[in-house]
TrEMBL record:
GO terms for molecular function: ligase activity; ubiquitin-protein transferase activity; zinc ion binding. Residues 1-115 form the PHD-type domain. SUPFAM superfamilies: FYVE/PHD zinc finger, Hect, E3 ligase catalytic domain. It is found in: Nucleus. The gene is G2e3_0. This is G2E3 ligase.
């Protein structure tokens, strides 16, 4: 490892050890994570999980000057954060000396003298009890190797046991083994240096681990089946949907075959009915009328026609999402820093491409985005002046957004107003437009990092059964469509494969290996694809026959060339067929306001905003965004020169300038309404009128006076709003 100098490969202690041959670089993940002088400045697929290679080399040079206070060797990249403490050490040395590393927030490190400790009451019994993880005795002592539960009085653990439990359970399932408390327990364990990875539990990541639980009985067992397509035919949300026995679940019937008008009606098979009849507990019930919730617009729903959105909505709470918030971002990032990152590697240009080609590429995308803007403006004509207010809890954006979009009075053709609640840092001076821009920006980021999508950069739909059940894919598509038309940011995270499935239909799309997000599945496909002999291919297929059976791709292979068709079939199943239901539901959501129809009519244009990250704001882009107006006694040319010079020279970011004028730190896909303008007036300081998207600028004698007034006003205004 270039940081600690050790060759140990122990993922549990030092994190994954990664080698990059092209950069002549090997590094432990935890050594990199805890180093004091490096920040994650790139996308997750850049460098080493967002740590740029140039930054890593700079950190190695910095650490080479520092001596470890434990082993006395150079290369100590980690420093104690306690004030006035100058101790530095390697990560493995720190573990050995019982330092504490906090895998949260700023990823702080504390030496053995300043590390945090747990409080012990004098009255607490000193003795020993059983560690509920390993079941061995653990002494009640205030030492590094022993940790006490913050939520249970007599729960004590070995530190090593807790760390292994956390690595296995992940952030979803790591909790107190005695009382099952999660929030309080995790907070204390993170403070005391337990690393809780932001991923699902190890037992949840096993391929097809719960496959047997997903098999449902699909057969009509009534004496006389009325379905012309056979007893095994099942069409969801219609009269030919199969309903299983409410008691045993091992017998079924079509709704029509048992004269049921709704899925909500219960059905018992003959065997269960006879058992209850003999026990005296069965009484024949009258068929109940449909409940209010089973009627639509006053008419009874007979399930003859499937609704446009997929499966019935669960009455339970919405599916929650774990946000993959960036591990460490540079502390000076602007509010829309996620929009400033480079485009994903699936569309990035070769490093050897000339600057001219790079410029032409950007020019091409800008032209396409301008044309999309005009198309979205045509769709925006549908939006009426009647308003719908969304009350958004800033601490739980997704749940409150879902509730707002599902409310009965919500209509995508109404003008949307956003009101933030439970948010101390929202200023009263924020206009409705500013709140709406901020809401759509955060909502798109939530969706990008949610469990509905998978992949590191270009994302495809994932298969989340709970989300399918609660119809969240439909809601996600609807939210993206509404955001595009109502002034939200370009999503920019769709993979080419997902976009082509939406536009051309899944049957016309050929997925690639890069579309497989599951590491184990990708590895299996690679082994098949790169098998160099028939015997090795057959051996590989034998090893993964269970996976191939689940994918419906298990077949005899008699020649090495058969692997190509097999790989293609596996990719089609895993990337497309497996997510047929989520994809159709997502497509239905995107039909809102006619967005999907326009996508299918202009695929080349819409791919520029759905598959490509927005380019970072430039002085030229911002300058061209504004139309300059001035009175007759003002030198328009000189004012324009001052304005352009300031855009190129300002300390304040271009995003903050845009935020000051419009309330948005990004350029919406549909553009600004009204279009931004600039007026040069005889005023003392600049004024940003967000209702009119108008920037009123003072007339000054010198450029320096102009710049000073701009810096002072914009900085102070945004600082007050953020505070």
């Amino acid at each position: 490892c270039v940081l600690c100098g050790r060759t140990d490969d122990c993922p549990e202690k030092y994190g994954e050890k990664r080698t990059y041959v092209e950069y002549n670089l090997t590094v432990h993940y935890y050594c990199l994570l805890m180093s004091s002088g490096i920040w994650q400045r790139g996308e997750e697929d850049e460098g080493v999980d967002g740590f740029l290679i140039t930054d890593i080399k700079k950190e190695v040079k910095r650490a080479a000057k520092l001596k470890c206070n434990i082993c006395k060797r150079k290369g100590a990249s980690i420093g104690c954060v306690a004030p006035k403490c100058k101790r530095s050490y390697h990560f493995p040395c720190g573990l050995q000396r019982e330092c504490i590393f906090q895998f949260m927030e700023d990823f702080s490190s504390y030496c053995w003298e300043h590390r945090p400790v747990q409080e012990f009451m004098d009255k607490e019994p000193r003795g020993a009890s059983q560690c509920t993880i390993c079941l061995d005795l653990v002494e009640h002592l205030p030492v590094y190797t022993v940790l006490k539960s913050p939520c249970c009085k007599n729960a004590w653990f070995h530190r090593e046991c807790l760390q292994y439990q956390a690595l296995s359970a992940g952030i979803f399932f790591f909790r107190c083994t005695v009382c099952n408390n999660k929030d309080k327990f995790q907070k204390e364990m993170l403070r005391m240096g337990i690393h809780i990875p932001e991923r699902d539990a190890s037992w949840e990541l096993e391929e097809n681990a719960y496959q047997d639980l997903l098999h449902c009985y699909q057969h009509c067992d009534v004496k006389r089946c009325l379905c012309k397509k056979g007893r095994d035919y099942n069409e969801p949300d219609s009269k030919w949907e199969i309903k299983r026995c409410q008691y045993c679940g091992s017998r079924g019937t079509h709704l029509a075959c048992s004269s049921m008008k709704s899925w909500e009606q219960n059905w018992e098979c003959v065997e269960c009915r006879s058992i209850f009849a003999k026990s005296g507990k069965y009484s024949k019930r009258k068929k109940r009328a449909l409940a209010t919730s089973e009627t639509t617009n006053g008419t009874t729903c007979l399930l003859e026609e499937p609704p446009p959105k997929s499966p019935r909505q669960s009455s339970g709470s919405p599916c929650s999402f774990l946000l993959q918030s960036p591990k460490i971002m540079c502390q000076n990032l602007s509010p829309c820093s996620h929009l400033e990152q480079p485009a994903p590697n699936r569309v990035s240009l070769s490093p050897v491409m000339s600057n001219r080609n790079w410029s032409l590429r950007h020019k091409y995308l800008r032209q396409r985005r301008r044309e999309v803007c005009n198309i979205l403006k045509e769709l925006k004509v549908q939006v009426k002046t009647k308003t719908t207010r969304l009350n958004i809890n800033a601490e739980n954006i997704w749940s409150s957004a879902l509730k707002g979009f599902r409310q009965r009075i919500f209509s995508p053709t109404n003008t949307i107003e956003v009101n933030f609640s439970n948010c101390k840092n929202r200023s009263k001076t924020n206009t409705s437009a500013a709140s709406k821009h901020h809401f759509f920006q955060v909502l798109m980021l939530h969706l990008q990092n949610s469990s509905l999508f998978e992949g590191s950069s270009g994302k495809n739909l994932s298969l989340d059964f709970q989300a399918v059940k609660e119809n969240l894919y439909f809601e996600a598509g609807k939210m993206i469509a509404v955001s595009l038309v109502h002034g939200g940011p370009p999503p920019g995270f769709f993979s080419k494969t997902l976009f082509n499935c939406l536009v051309y239909g899944p049957e016309n799309v050929k997925p690639a290996l890069e579309d497989v997000a599951d590491v184990d599945v990708a590895q299996t496909i690679k082994m098949i694809k790169y098998a160099d002999s028939l015997s090795s291919l057959q051996s590989t297929l034998q090893d993964c026959c269970e996976f191939l059976t689940g994918a419906g791709c298990l077949r005899p292979v008699t020649a090495l060339c058969d692997k190509n068709m097999l790989v293609n079939d596996i990719l089609i199943y895993h990337v497309i067929k497996r997510i047929t239901l989520p994809l159709e539901s997502f497509r239905q959501g995107l039909k809102t306001l006619g967005v999907l129809e326009k996508m299918q009519m202009h695929p080349d244009l819409f791919s520029s905003i759905l598959c490509h990250k927005p380019e970072r704001l430039s002085a030229e882009t911002v300058y061209n965004l504004f139309t300059i107006h001035s009175s007759s006694d003002v030198n328009k040319v000189e004012g324009a020169d001052f304005w352009m010079g300031y855009l190129q020279d300002s300390v304040v970011t271009l995003e903050d300038i845009l935020l000051f004028v419009t309330g948005s730190c990004y350029i919406p896909s549909v553009g600004f309404d009204p279009e931004p303008t600039i007026k040069f007036l005889h005023i003392r300081y600049p004024i940003g009128n967000r209702l009119l998207n108008c920037l009123e600028l003072p007339i000054t004698k010198t450029y320096q006076q102009f710049k000073n007034k701009m810096e002072l006003t914009i900085r102070n205004t945004l600082r007050v709003e953020r505070e």
